[in-house]
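Hi F.,

I've been meaning to write this up properly since the lab meeting, where we talked about keeping a consistent format for the predictions we share between groups. The idea is simple: the sequence comes first, exactly as it goes in, then the structure tokens exactly as they come out, then a line or two of notes. No screenshots and no reformatting. I'm using this chain as the first example so we have something concrete to point to.
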Amino acid sequence: MAPKKRPNMEQAKPISTRVTRSSTRNGNTKPISSDPEPPKPKRVKKTPISEPKPELKTGSKGIVVVEHCKQCNQFKIRAVKVKEELENGVPGLEVRVNPEKPRRGCFEIRLDGENGEKFVSLLDMKRPFGPMKALDMDKVISDIIEKIK
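Output, unedited:
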């Protein structure tokens, strides 16, 4: 059987428009299409628009802010307990949990405002969060209720 004839490489046209790394080094790049696509728009991170803080109603006791770290679930358990018991203990009291991004290793209970009183302030705690675990939360909550009333 006779061997097949090969086409002359000078006459053959490239079938593929594929661009490889080696072809870019040699300068043999050809555009795939004549009209290039416009670049995709960059993704912009959407930030929530902060709502203006509502004015205090007459007869309300104020706003208590409970700031807790999100590093450990123990912070959240205590913060939710404080929120529920303060709202039940003092009618008309608004309790906010982490209205802003919390600090690391922080557990703080304070009145909101310019001269807000701090009831509990534990900052920069390291694991296993001994000062927070040593708190008697029932006593702390009853003390806060007495100060607010």
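Notes:
Confidence is low (pLDDT under 50) at residues 53-59.
Strands lie at 62-68, 93-97, 107-111, 118-122.

If this format works for you, I'll send the rest the same way.

G.
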